[in-house]
Amino acid sequence: MGSWNTLHHFDDKKFYSKIVPDLRGEGYLLRNYFNSEFGKYIVGNSDQNEERITDIIKFSQFLDDEFKIHETLFNIKNRKKSVNEEYSSFIKKLYKDEDDFYRENEPIIEDINLILTLIIFSECASFNPHLILGRTIFTACVGAKPGSIAEDIISDFTNNELGSIFYPVASNCNGLINWVTNEDLQLLWLDKENLYSTGKDAEKYFSDFCKFIEIAIENDLGVISGTNMNESFLKLIQSPLSVKIDVKELKLENVINYK
């Protein structure tokens, strides 16, 4: 059936100034959410919670400045075949190293995806209203000139970087995909002439997408995408953002409030 993907407004400045330092430091915020009633519902509750929290903090030390890419995983995926190395041996080692990394770290990666979703939508992102990305709606309706800045930036709405610990759109997992900062959204808008609707049937979606991005820029926000989000749960969290969007007044058909 594929994955169902969504795009949300996101305060990247608060994320990098408050949440990331906590996950790389003492973990006070992490611990509060992990042991909260919402946290127990999402990540479960066991006598191993403190160990899981410690593992998240240790693991976070190896993520890059953007808090997306794990150093070891990036090096595994980015390794090049040496001149005298047989291609079959190169591929075999690559797959083995990847498997070993995920076998060792998969529980931690899953915990990070689950708890970070709760923290982000409680502290610096709004679940409702959000733009539908769907399974292929976004990529089928919004295009960009090849090689342009616009193409590079909008690809981050539905894809993630080499070595990312977050989930690709087709993963059938529940969690985050990627985020784009307000600074990059401004760059996107400076290159807006290289964005286009893919056809007449896509014009309304393209228009709604543009309005959603304009609202983010006007409110000094970025955007964050997720896949198979726990909608029935996340809708219960009161938005930490002050931005208000009247979907009906703006006639946004593809920006919705999940009820």
State Rg. 19 Å
Low-confidence stretches: none
Strand content: 5-15%
- Mean pLDDT across every amino acid position: 93
According to DSSP, the number of beta strands is 7
How many helical elements? Answer: 11
- Helicity level: 40-55%
H/E element sequence: EHHHHHHEHEHEHEHEHE
Report the biggest beta sheet as strand number plus sense, adding barrel if it closes.
5 strands, antiparallel
Oligomer: single chain
Q: CA-to-CA gap between the ends?
A: 22 Å
Structural classification? alpha+beta
Shape: globular
- Can you list the strand order of the major beta sheet? 4-6-1-2-7
Notable features of this structure?
259 residues, alpha+beta, five-stranded antiparallel beta sheet, 11 helices
Q: How does this structure look, described?
A:
With 259 residues, this protein is an alpha+beta fold. Helix content is 49%, strand content 12%. It has eleven helices and seven strands. The strands form two sheets. The chain has a five-stranded antiparallel β-sheet, sandwiched between helices. Strands 3-5 form a two-stranded antiparallel ribbon.
Which SSEs are present, and which pair or pack?
Blueprint: E1 5-10, H1 12-23, H2 28-34, H3 37-43, H4 49-60, H5 71-78, H6 87-123, E2 130-134, H7 137-141, E3 142-144, H8 149-158, E4 175-180, H9 182-190, E5 195-197, H10 203-218, E6 222-227, H11 231-234, E7 255-256
Antiparallel strand pairs: 1-2, 1-6, 2-7, 3-5, 4-6
Helix pairs in contact: 2-6, 3-6, 4-6, 5-6, 8-9, 9-10
Structure in a nutshell:
This protein is α+β, with helices and mostly antiparallel strands and 259 residues long. It is built from 11 helices and 7 strands.
